[in-house]
């Protein structure tokens, strides 16, 4: 009998959909009403209705009545939904800096506490030092394994009809990672040191065709590069690390397993269990979701 999906698999099933991320982003910017989501995102009624229902069922949004006769509802982020802001801030920074094929330049993020545009820095909650993948030791926890980290169903891709309007496609390369279960697994495996095709195949158990396809996509997209018959993370690939870590931390907070966490992280420089904290690269202060805003978009 197969074991239940762990926190990583639950996270991939929820976040591996671009419209879900975009709706959560707008909700963090205080959008709550159906018509406002339509106006801001250019999303179709059918797609928005489906995503709002799914996000409400998942516990990311709460549907509340704000008008009687006729009944009208608004969708307010729950604590679980609000806790996504570090993931979205990390995605925004990576796409803004590293992905050139946006229809228009993504606006900067402004930290209202210091009133300047900023980039989020991944730091250790224990020692406050900036952290890269080189300073973290990762291992499977009691509920961890690749078979248990795969979503029950393949994460959903937008159809062509969904992609023709509005801001769909805002996170194109992020979705090539979060929107495919083998992509996410492959990238994590690259971060923990795998470089050869056989290493990826052995650790992941992925079908050879799927693995070849993902490696080609990552190489073409500049996330990996081939050197001496091995696949190495590029600077762009390493820069995706905060997205992986904040998504993992969100998942393990909101989808706890009675057996224990799926992944254990230790900061090797201070020796403590690692808890990610995003800080402002301008004022060095810790960031809060309420203090982060888009800046420079032509609305």
UniProtKB/TrEMBL annotation:
Residues 3-103, 168-259 form the HTH hxlR-type domain. InterPro entries: HTH_HxlR (IPR002577), WH-like_DNA-bd_sf (IPR036388), WH_DNA-bd_sf (IPR036390). Residues 141-165 are annotated as: Disordered. It holds the Pfam family HxlR. One of its GO terms (molecular function) is DNA binding. PANTHER family: TRANSCRIPTIONAL REGULATOR, MARR FAMILY (PTHR33204), TRANSCRIPTIONAL REGULATORY PROTEIN (PTHR33204:SF18). The keyword Ubl conjugation does not apply. It comes from the Bacteria. The lineage of its organism: Bacteria, Bacillati, Actinomycetota, Actinomycetes, Mycobacteriales. It comes from Mycolicibacterium madagascariense. Keywords: DNA-binding, Transcription, Transcription regulation. This is HxlR family transcriptional regulator. The keyword Ribonucleoprotein does not apply.
